[in-house]
Amino acid sequence: MNPAIEIQNLRYRYHDGTEALRGVSFRINSGDCVGLLGPNGSGKSTLLLHLNGILPDNHGAHGAVRIHGLEATHKNLESIRRQVGLVFQDPDDQLFCPTVAEDVAFGPQQLGLAQVEVKERVRKALAQVGLPDFGPRATHHLSHGEKRRVCLAGVLACEPSVLVLDEPTSDLDPRGRREFKALLRELPATKLIATHDLELVVELCPRAIILDRGVVVADGSTPVLLSDEPLMLAHGLEKPHILFHRHPH
Ligand code: ADP
Description:
Blueprint: E1 5-13, E2 19-28, E3 33-37, H1 44-51, E4 61-67, E5 70-71, H2 77-83, E6 84-87, H3 91-94, H4 100-110, H5 115-128, H6 144-156, E7 162-166, H7 174-186, E8 190-194, H8 198-204, E9 207-212, E10 215-221, H9 222-227, H10 229-234, H11 241-244
Parallel strand pairs: 3-8, 3-9, 6-7, 7-8
Antiparallel strand pairs: 1-2, 1-4, 4-5, 9-10
The chain binds adenosine-5'-diphosphate.
């Protein structure tokens, strides 16, 4: 079976000459949940944007991204975007309709679904993220945590097989983080989560990939990588407290 995500020697240079990705390769099997770690500026967001073809600028990109075996090129973009749901780091970059229901409906409408099916998808997605009655609410009056849930609902309403999340728990309060993690755990999609929230990685992702300066510097079992203090420190990370409490007596 083809991996859900396959990245092969991916390089990307922004217009100003910044080399954000310098030969990244990895595969993620269907149904897996993988944490993508690395200091600021290591290339995580740039990598995620390639997964649904937001950045396949032919001048800047080299290498290949495949989703279930299908290459993320211009000609396949529509199929790729049906399969990959990307949740942006900043909800305000993602939400743009006046009401929650309209926002969540936007993706399914783009998929060309019938109105009755769109409505059902919106209902289901809002229930999934724990906001069943939020449809008529004004998007710009929501709290930050609610906005994040609405963004996720908008992506879930498209029923993607691959879910890509950029810093999903940053600036959530502890309860918001807990609820968001519980929600992610329930979703059957293949997940790639870029985050500085190491507890989330320990709890949800059996595998972690560490990126630094546009290259993969480690890829393996989360408890092994995150317990490796020299490795973590060398790449601007730290051993999470949660692992300090796991020593058997
Ligand atoms: P991360 O998500 O790990 O913080 P990014 O993918 O945002 O890393 O950034 C990787 C590198 O690319 C950084 O050096 C950053 O400054 C640069 N970069 C990001 N976006 C742009 C852009 N639009 N134009 C030029 N350089 C950029």
